[in-house]
Here is the input.
Amino acid sequence: MKILEPLKLNGVTLPNRIAVPAMVTRLSGEDGFVNQPIIDRYVRYAQGHVGLIVVEATAVHSNKSGPLLRLSDDEFIPGHRDLVDQVHSTSDSKVVPQIIHFLKVARSGWRQTIDSLSEADIERIIEEFGQAAARARTAGYDGVELHSAHAYTLSSFLSRRNPRRDDFDGRTLEGRLAMFGRVMASVRRHVGKDWTVGVRFLAEEAIKEGYTVEDAKLIALRMAQLGVDYISLSVGGKFEDAVHREGQPLYPYTGYSGDRCMPGDWYPPLPHVHLAAGVKQYINSKGFTVPVISAGKISDPVDAERLLQTGQADMIGMARQLLADPDWVKKVEQKRGDQIVRCIYCNVCKQLDENFKEVTCFLWPKGLVQAPADATDGAAPQWPEGGAKLVATVDKGQVKLSWAKAVAGAAPIAGYNVYRAEDDGAAHVTEAVKSTKHSDKVVLGGLRYTYYVRGHDAAGRATPPSDAVRIDLPVPIAEPVVSSSSEVRHVPH
Ligand SMILES: Cc1cc2nc3c(=O)[nH]c(=O)nc-3n(C[C@H](O)[C@H](O)[C@H](O)COP(=O)(O)O)c2cc1C
Here is the structure.
């Protein structure tokens, strides 16, 4: 399988093509030091044999913020060294921190923008990136990732909405790229050429007048020319369309661009893969082979493998899926793919992040701060005698399902996956629930739906599929709405 093929990035070899992109955990204090829960979170990914572990956004400077890791001073190095040592002593997973600079935000909704930065401020930021990268190398990390995505400083320079009118002029692509070029040069000066420096930036800003994939291709090409060792793509997550909540600092994932960044359950799977594919194909056509990481609602091993096999990506990034089940890679390696606990993209993790609460997964058993341990043996749960007795009824546009409680095997029942197929299509997990009921509210008359459920424990050991139920929904007959000609209005525009 291509997923499991190693990949060389500068001086290090990743054991496979799966990455966990940076995900703020809110497990650190506001002091910014690495603590044991933070280490446990990243060791957990190493236990699951994730090829590249990107540690959450870590500040290069000391601006106040909520709970956030820091590499803004040498005093933070020992904690990071501890994290790296524990990850490395767990498996051959590789680990890099994502380093970030952000500007001030206030509870009033005010935020500082890059046009307020003086030349001295800019020189300081460039130096701060270099120094933070050097500290990451001293701590023993396998590389560093420069956070140039979403609402933060480097991304604001790359943006088509960059308001500067000097050497960093937002009206030209070269002007927008100038800051990244300076930062990259500073980082290389501090860490040398023989150490992995990756970048994360936006394949599409997803805001009004923001840049699209056409600019992203050129931005990626410049990054390749500058010698980045990998390119990780994200989408959206901007301040420009964020919705301000009274008394709270702006959170850049509350508007449409936020939806695009962390697409929820109402989005189709793989909504961004064409963007990464476009960027990869473009830089490859110019002779650069810098690996491109594609992310966004990828969770099925079959999809991940296809994207790699068809040259649409060099690596697959899975954030929420690997939070839900950090053993994804191990389960694929051991051909236990059917035991993967599938992310349902409910975005409870996102809400926790927004409210500065410890980021956990809704699918983990209540009260856990880390994903439950994997289990390769022990009895799977079973259906009780007489089966799951799955029943489906149609009521006011909903299909209401209920079934019997599964009987625990080696561990208690953690929840149930509801599978749904439309007409003669393949069945997919449509919802994960903790109780024995589910209402499917997105069904259309005229289609035929088939449902079955599986109960599972926290390690993913599951019952066999229940008996399936099939429902043919009638097309509702509505009276056509007829308006009299006098009511017709033509609105000029
Ligand atoms: C709780 C949470 C925190 C995140 N923190 C970061 C971050 O620190 N840096 C970053 O680049 N992206 C961050 N992201 C975005 C993810 O890395 C990823 O791009 C996004 O969730 C889409 O991928 P997915 O569908 O595999 O989850 C975060 C996402 C979530 C849900």
